[in-house]
Amino acid sequence: MPRLGYLLPTRERVMEGQPETRPLLALAERAEALGFDSLWVGDSLLARPRHDALTLLAAVAARTHRAELGTAVLLPALRNPVLLAHQVATLDRIAEGRVILGVGIASDWPNIRAEFEAAGVPFDKRIGRLLEGLALCRVLWSGKEINWPQNGEGRWNVKSAVLGPTPHRPGGPPIWIAGAVPAARARAGRHFEGWFPNSATAAEYGPQWAEVQAAGRAAGRDPSKLTPATYLTLAIDDDQARADARLNAYLERYYGMPPGETRKRQKSYAGAAAGAAAWLKGYADAGATHIVLRFAGDHERHLETAARIRRDLGW
Fold it and tell me: Residue 278 has what pLDDT?
């Protein structure tokens, strides 16, 4: 049975001029009470203003007890990996081992390029920075004295350093990477613990997941230890026209572009609960074992509806 996650509306609340965190924490508590297995927050510095992901998750960790806590998705290339390793280790201590680090390389959109420039990070070097930075995080999470780089040249120089505290989970939290293009699938299989796309249809998901597993196997890894996840957006309403209008308005406001473009890139559903159940089941049947849901507004109602769908599916 797949595990079900819920994305907190951090971006939406800032856009609405309601940045208070108390309602977000209440939503997290409500989702956990309804049986959601994980709680997620997005990440952006300037491109899509929202609460800092790791800081907010620390508060969520203190208010919840069972659900895993994840980033969907963090952009490691924008951060110094020594600082990131320290923050994530502390967060995982607060959460007592419940953290999942969802990461991505960032989409090539003008506002995201501007965000990288503002942070002083070369956009065209983001993949190398992500891979090396996360490798450095993992070494720091060992709690042993380290020197970096270990072989050849690197972007960061760490000499005779020990990070403390280490994460609650030995070796650090699992890292899932977003992206569904062939290069992203290969990276997921070779380097990370999970694959976390938002652009694969249910029909595409199974064959693409097989590619991730094959890349892992070729790298000498055990594919059974990799997690197939996905991130999906829903507007559930018995009135089809109203559901479509709600989803389109949500996406247009969120991304500032025609919703049709976003719906091509990011898989979403608009319609009745029965159709949503069949749509989600398609991903589970294709192999996804963790499905994270983002709702197009009306979060309390959507949470209740999704919990009911889950019960009806026997998940």
Answer: 98
Q: What are phi and psi of 60, to 5 degrees?
A: -65, -40
Residue 201: CATH number of its domain: 3.20.20.30
Task: Residue count of the chain, please give it.
Answer: 315
> How many domains does the chain contain in total?
1
CA distances from 185 to 176, 199, 232 (A): 11, 12, 18
State both tokens at 193: 């613990």
Q: Say if residues 77 and 129 touch (Cβ distance below 8 Å).
A: yes
Q: For the segment 73-121, what is each residue's pLDDT rounded down to a tens digit?
A: 999 999 999 999 999 999 999 999 999 999 999 999 999 999 999 999 9
Identity at 144, one-letter amino acid code: K
Q: How far is CA 1 from the centre of its chain?
A: 20
d(CA 235, CA 295): 6
The pTM for the full model equals 0.97
Domain of residue 172: give its range.
3-313
Tell me if 216 sits within 8 A of 187, measured CB to CB: no
- What values do phi and psi take at 55, rounded to 5? -65, -45
3-state secondary structure the chain: CCEEEEECCHHHHHHCCCCCCHHHHHHHHHHHHCCCCEEEECCCCCCCCCCCHHHHHHHHHHHCCCCEEEECCECHHHCCHHHHHHHHHHHHHHCCCCEEEEECCCCCCHHHHHHHHHCCCCHHHHHHHHHHHHHHHHHHCCCCCEEECCCCCCCCCEEEECCCCCCCCCCCCCEEECCCCHHHHHHHHHHCCEECCCCCCHHHHHHHHHHHHHHHHHCCCCHHHCEEEEEEEEEECCCHHHHHHHHHHHHHHHHCCCHHHHHHHCCEEEECHHHHHHHHHHHHHCCCCEEEEEECCCHHHHHHHHHHHHHHHCC
